[in-house]
Amino acid sequence: MALPRELALDDAQVEDMLSNDWNLRIATVDAQGNINLTPMWFGWAGGNIYIFGRGQKVVNLRRNPRCTVLVDRNEKFPELQAIMMRGTARVLETAEEEAADPYLEEARRQMGIKYNGGHGQPKVDDPPPQRSTAGGRNRRWIVFTPDRTVTWDNFKLDRLKRS
Hints:
By secondary structure, this protein is of the alpha+beta class. It is 25% helix and 35% strand. It has one domain (5-153): Pnp Oxidase, Chain A. The chain has a seven-stranded antiparallel beta sheet, with helices on both faces.
C-alpha cells in the first residue's frame, strides 16, 4: 500500500494510539482461505502487539501465523487515523511460554490500566494486570510481531492539497 509520506502518523502518534486506543482488528486466514476479521483488545510492549484470544483466530494462527492488524480512530474520513501492520503471530501455548516472554508482563500491566472499568465494572485506583492465561484448547496469548507498518492521518490531507 503506497501512501504519501506526508500523510503518515509521526512516532509519538503511533505510540499514543498503540498504548491508549482500545480496539484493534486482526485478520487471519482459515483453512479454506477465508479471511476471519475480529475486533480485539490489545497490549503494546517491546514492539509487539499482545492479544488474549480464543476460538477461530487461534486455530488459524497455529496453521498460518501470517496476519494483519489494524488500529484506527475517528469515524469521518477527513479525521481518520490508522496503523496497519502486517506480520507474524506466535501463539503462547503454555504458562511456561507465557513466563518466558520478555514483554508479556508489561503488556498485562498496560492492559489492566487501559481497560480499567471496561467490563462494566467500576474503575479502581490501582488496577491489576490482565491475568488471563492459557486454558482449554484455544484460549491463548497471541504475540504479533510486525514486519511492515503503514500509517495515515487524514487530518493532514488539507496540508497535502495545499502543497
